[in-house]
Amino acid sequence: MGNESSPGLRLNKVVVLGANGAMGAGSGALFAAGGCKVVLVARDRAKAEAARTAIQGITKSERITDAVECATYSDGMAGLLKDADLIFEAVAEDMAIKRPLFKQIDAARPPNALVATVSSGLSIREMTEGLSDGFKSHFAGIHLYNPPHVMTGVEVIAHPDMNPELAGAIQCLLTERFGRAAITTADMPGFAGNRIGFKVLNEVAQLAEEHGVQLMDTLVGPYTGRAMAPLATLDLVGWDVHQAIVDNVAANVTDEAPGAFTMPAYMASLIAKGHLGDKTPLLGGFYRKDARGTVVLDPASGSYIPANPDLKVGFVEEIKDLNRQGRYKQGVRRFMAAEGAEADIARRVILGYMSYGLNRAGAGEVVREYADVDRIMSAGFNWVPPSALADLIGYQTAKESLARYGLPGCALIDAAAKGEVPTPLFNLPYITPGRYFAG
Q: What is the mean pLDDT of residues 17-37?
């Protein structure tokens, strides 16, 4: 296996299993744009052909699909995988679906073919239980963020039996040939990005039960350094996906944020009734469109009420105005100085994100360097990286504020406050923190 970017690692033919889903088409577009021959495999040919059409729309290219073929599982695994360099699994996020598929792949894959899962947080080791040593040593998670043509973040999670040099070559290939912001993470539930991001999203969903959906999305909205308001993000992602991620972390992780991944009971109840967010437009999620316009979920009753077009919070409007002027540093200072219960709610969430994110780096943690947390929260979520928040808030202020709100401290912030590490902490090339703060 060889190419110009990574000697010894060839990637000419990619077989995408589960091409009928959004991530299947998105990953197919990524590999096709990188010069690979791509085979899209779905349950029936019409679904695979729909994915090929979607690739044309994603890439805005009529010729991109010249090297894209469509197939179905009925064509036989041995024929589908012949000459494959990478077998990319993008089926539903369900271990009971993935493991039987991997067993079929193990029996048919070419000896040197890589196998990857796009899983957003399931155990890489558990997926391969009972499979051959050759499969395990060629297996990794390649967690793309949706949609891949917009979000360049990717996490590489190598199986423990994979040669570290091969894992490094995969990360290098994704970076150099496919333009990804790739990081390596440990095989821990949620990996890095979703563990950090969905902790925040779930916390806001918990707070919405007391404070209301619209107010929480206002208090922790784009002005705080994110592309979308949190609960609107959950509607976009899908409530079923959210439940799968937080339940997995809650069941398998013990850390400094107990209860943070407990799914709100009102969400679980509505999921049982079919509410999944944007993917169920007639039922809705936190928001829904009906004859009244945009209506908003009332968590207490499970019913929907008209959105309040006049809902505004004074300090939020002031900060949004500063952001529109490009004065985001002053905006962060205004955020930290704002008074009142609503400001306390917002600060607790944002400071918690900063602390939790930076504490995921280090020995025994999900990533080795905090810069990897910054990279994945930037390129995977389009959120302001945690270290940039620490820079803007000020290290001593950040340290005191964490203590004030009873949030876990952070060794990196403590060291920065003492002048023991180089500052500013945020150091991703070609990126300014101001890009994240919306008006």
A: 94
